[in-house]
Design goal:
Residues 25-60 form the YjiS-like domain. Pfam families: YjiS-like. InterPro entries: YjiS-like. Helix content is 59%, strand content 0%. It contains three helices and no strands. The chain has helices at 9-43, 46-51, 59-63. The radius of gyration is 22 Å and the shape is rod-shaped.
Amino acid sequence: MSALAIRSPAVAFVLSQGARIRLVIEAYLARRAHHRAVRNLSELDDYLLKDIGVARCEIDSLAYGSSERKRGHEHDMG
């Protein structure tokens, strides 16, 4: 036997506002993490970046998760 839960419009409004606030906080934290990654990678010298296979011009796209980047020599095959 299942119970039917009836919510008032006020409760539904509060729950939806809570979900929106959670999304805003998650977006803010993700943005801070991206900025931190860009800052940390930017502080590395060119030799270290080369060792890990990253060009300085790729730092922003890597931090924000761009899928356009090809790793290694995949594009040289053919």
